Amino acid sequence: MVSRFRPHSWRQKFGHAFRGLRRALRTQHSFVVHLAVAAVVVLVAAALRVSAVDWALLMLAIGLVLVAETFNTAIESLARAVDTSFHPRLRDALDIASAAVLLAAGTAVVIGLIIFLPRLFMLVSGFLLRP
Questions:
Q1: Is 81 helix (H, G, I), strand (E, B) or coil?
Q2: What long-range pairs does 125-131 form, CB within 8 A, spacing at least 24?
Q3: Residue 47: inside a domain, yes or no?
Q4: For the chain, how many structural domains are there in total?
């Protein structure tokens, strides 16, 4: 059996990947929201001068959310290509993919709270305790 897919060069593979990223950015409002939140997290982390380990954890959390959102977008696109009418199994697949994004975002929030809350508490209490 001959495959209808032919091998691609690394340049083509990266081109396809960046096309997918552009497509997610242009068509998915949630993806843009996650990027905006990630930018705020990076700014806050820089302002609070978090440690290298904390930076790594924050970058992993951001990456986890963006990857989950990208997979969710891919599954949504595939579901629309397969069938435009209602189908309970497609609904289930879409809901499960959305749940993955929810779990990733919740995990990222917990990581952010663990890293930022103690620093913000010290910063706020320092301002309140000044004479």
A1: helix
A2: none
A3: yes
A4: 1
